[in-house]
Amino acid sequence: MTPQYTNSLPIQHKSHSLSPARMLAAAASALLLFFALASDAAAQVPTLIVVRGMPARAKIDENFLPQPPLTKADIGQIKIGGKVVPLVDFQPLLGGPHVLQLMVLLDSEQMLGAVPAQFDSIKTFFHNMPPNIEIGVGWLLQGKVVVTQPFTTDRELAGKALVAKTRAEAANPKNDNGNPFQCLGYLAAHWPTPDPGKLRAVLMFTDGIIRSNAQAAGRDQVDPNIVGASMKLQIAGITPYPFFWQDPIVADPNRGEGGQLEGQDNFAEMDSTSGGAGLFDGFFAPGSLDPLLNRLYSTLKSEAVLTVTDPDKPGKMSRLDLKSTREDIKLFGPDQVVSGNVLK
What we know:
CATH class of the largest domain: Alpha Beta
Oligomer: single chain
CATH topology of the largest domain: Rossmann fold
Strand content: 25-35%
CATH superfamily of the largest domain: von Willebrand factor, type A domain
Shape: globular
Structural class: alpha+beta
Number of strands: 13
Number of domains: 2
Largest sheet: 5 strands, mixed
Helix content: 25-40%
């Protein structure tokens, strides 16, 4: 068949091959896309969040009571800085793969342990902890924390670090705690043997009363000591468990004791923003420490460690929003979380 011609010229068909210039442009675009994706992937950092379930509708004094352990199916939407982040791992806090460093602090102006059974209860609590819990012991003293036993898995060693103050020692001005919340702020900035691969918590035995504050706060105001301590705890990733203890016999009659309600209110203010849980039952020091320590064990057992993929850069602090898949519970954790807070 005779070919068809137009204006005596054959019809030209476009070639699908790229010119050298276009090939270079395509390669450059692919390279830019690769680096953009690599940069985005590098920004995805693992962030750990310790959470527990609380009744969705409960009286205020019931909110912090231990709940049944969470399951992965209970975890709904997680937002960091207003952005939804995916849940990539769910583990129990107690007995799970994550190591928890628990710092136990005694108040230098209280005589906890004067009755031997009190320290016996704490030692039993130590021995009940699973192997993934490291225990340290120290004192609240003059606005700082003095560590007497670094973190260890040796329960006997941790128990031996529990030493009671005599009445004369507790009354000595040199042993003033200097404000328990100031001590917590110091601890957050000077965590002993910090390990970026381990979780952190503090069990603090004190009455929570701020005696060194020269500026009295109104009933409708939150003390700046508490706000500051809570913020520092969140930055350092420390969950507080304040145990209300006030000596039945005042070590120094001239020392202002404040009110028990004041100290417990201070605990509640700190816990509500830091993800902690206050341990008290009534307005007086418990006759036995066992019930509240058992409550703490149940609380720790109910908590879970969530690992999420966080798009923010490591070190950035952002608001945390949690939502459960269940209507009968709400997820409770700190108000804010630091991206990349646990990096292997």
